[in-house]
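Hi again,

Forgot to attach this to my earlier email, sorry! This is the prediction with zinc ion bound. I've pasted everything inline since the attachment limit keeps bouncing my files.
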Amino acid sequence: MFFCPCLWRRNTNTDEDSASSIISSIHNNVDDISNNIGSVNISEDSAVEIEIIQCTSCEQNIDVTSTQTSNTDTNNNNNQTGTIDICFPTTMDSLLKHDEELFKQPPRVEDCPICYLRMPTLESGSVYMSCCGKLVCSGCDFAPLFDHQGNKVARKSCPFCRVPRSTTPHEYIERYKIRVEAGDPIAMNKLGRCYLYEMFGLARDYTKALELYHRAAELGYAKACTSIGHAYNTGRGMEVDNKKARHYYELGAMGGDVKARWHLGAMEYRVDRALKHYLIAVRDGDDDSLKCIKRLYSDGHVPKYEYTKALRLHQEYLDEIKSTRRDEAAVAYHRYY
Ligand SMILES: [Zn+2]
Ligand SMILES: [Zn+2]
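Structure tokens for the complex follow:
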């Protein structure tokens, strides 16, 4: 896989309001470019010759300074070829452009389709309906349902399409599969998790999980990028690769996934860059990032005004998503959105 810093610059100019279109086009361009760069010669000691290649998207020259081979037996054969795995932007200009896009506050996720309030960004604040593929907020999920005569509906149904909820593990999986066939990236990500964590009676299957994650990522679903980042970060189903983990976390974070942003903050060695990630995540409601800023402040790494700013941003987010129904759901489920 190969990526050039122009990917961020070019794609964010296309549609600033759509996180999914940004991620989708970045993901596709990564594949486009990787198909065009061919291979490089590997010498006897497996060191790769440094060469200049031209990015097919922005036509700028980039030094290939670090590569990784796909073959495992490079020590035994001279003059083998291997595929370029990661290319690092080497110019200050390209790094600055990359950071400019990376540290933008991402576009907001869609509002709840029932109450039209801002959807909580944390997963605990919304529920996915595998019947119709809608994501509804915890308050609308918790609210009682009534039929046309005003009687309370006994069996819990989808608050959007009124189809009765799944009741068995088999039913859950079958509905996810139907939604996957319909091209629903949320269902792809959820079914991938089921394969990865052996949920609803499924046997663990890393290959199927990763295939589903990649399909969802290609459709522009930010959380799927984060799922791929987790796989590279933890080595689930593949070898640990921190560079690729960071790459996919960046795609997830730019698409608006606060947990990807939190991971990027945790991976940073520089406090100023970590703080930038945490502040963006806090503005979108991530309390883990708020705790990290509090710890940085307690340890004397960031000034008090930065911690005060983080508290203010987090409160602004809470004010935006607050509703009576959501408060009731939070009390009932013993969790806060
Ligand atoms: Zn709602
Ligand atoms: Zn439904």
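Residues 6-102 form one domain. Confidence is low (pLDDT under 50) at residues 1-19, 28-52, 55-59, 63-86.

That should be everything now.

G.
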